[in-house]
């Protein structure tokens, strides 16, 4: 298997007779699948020449037989195989046992009248299996896992464009900080912003803050920010708000510690002369999140941040050993580190 690289979203033409879509970005897999079907079939042919088969419920041979039959009143047909668990090393309880030699035979001579799409939302395929080796030789493979920020930006720009809205870099950065990089969630937030802004107002950082729903991670980032600015009362108010939203104190502590660790790492690498993008690559977070953490890091010396991490570890131990009320331990921690 080739090394992981940023997902290639361009569709190679002419379409290969067998296409394998795999990786951890299910949103991208669905998007690519939709684009390939759109490229292969006219709108009028969808009802007659598009078939989908779920491998949890349907024999593999049935899908392959369909792929071998001629299209009905059209030039091409598309057959989609969903959930091909047999390509992985996972142990899955399925209703039927799939017969892989049938796939291997089909890959030797795929039908020229069909586009067989295999949709595999898995991180890894089992290269020990003959069927996977056959696919690597016969299929056009698209690995849809990692995304560069520029590709992510273009994707969300296209989502906004469907509504006639203008997507900006400041809006993108704020959405990443607020919602994370889960594609389905991010696309949903962009759609909300596009409907709100319409064609008259760009989707910028200010617009995102006006209407965007904040993620748990963003609320924790704000909690850390209030603690660092010694706004203890506001920090405790936000803490109680999160608890009222049924967030577990231990989970909040873990996220609090994670955010302080990010601020400490950003401070360390910044002092060592690394750029914002270099730090983002080393820590594995978005550059805009590095920028926000760098602003927080300016407020305190690394010794203070190390001390905070020690206090977080102590609080974690006390909660897990039942040494006191979980919420009270968290409240006392915030008092100590913001004093």
UniProtKB/TrEMBL annotation:
Domain DNA polymerase III delta N-terminal: residue ranges: 20-143
Transferase is among the record's keywords: yes
InterPro entries from the UniProt entry: DNA_pol3_clamp-load_cplx_C (IPR008921), DNA_pol3_delta-like_C (IPR048466), DNA_pol3_delta_N (IPR010372), DNA_polIII_delta (IPR005790), P-loop_NTPase (IPR027417)
Keywords associated with the record: DNA replication, DNA-directed DNA polymerase, Nucleotidyltransferase, Transferase
Domain DNA polymerase III delta subunit-like C-terminal residues, every copy: 217-336
GO cellular component: DNA polymerase III complex
GO molecular function: DNA binding; DNA-directed DNA polymerase activity
Pfam families linked: DNA_pol3_delta (PF06144), DNA_pol3_delta_C (PF21694)
SUPFAM superfamilies, A to Z: P-loop containing nucleoside triphosphate hydrolases, post-AAA+ oligomerization domain-like
Listed EC numbers: 2.7.7.7
Tree of life domain: Bacteria
Reactions accelerated catalytically: DNA(n) + a 2'-deoxyribonucleoside 5'-triphosphate = DNA(n+1) + diphosphate
One GO biological process term: DNA-templated DNA replication
Entry's family note: Belongs to the DNA polymerase HolA subunit family.
The protein's name: DNA polymerase III subunit delta
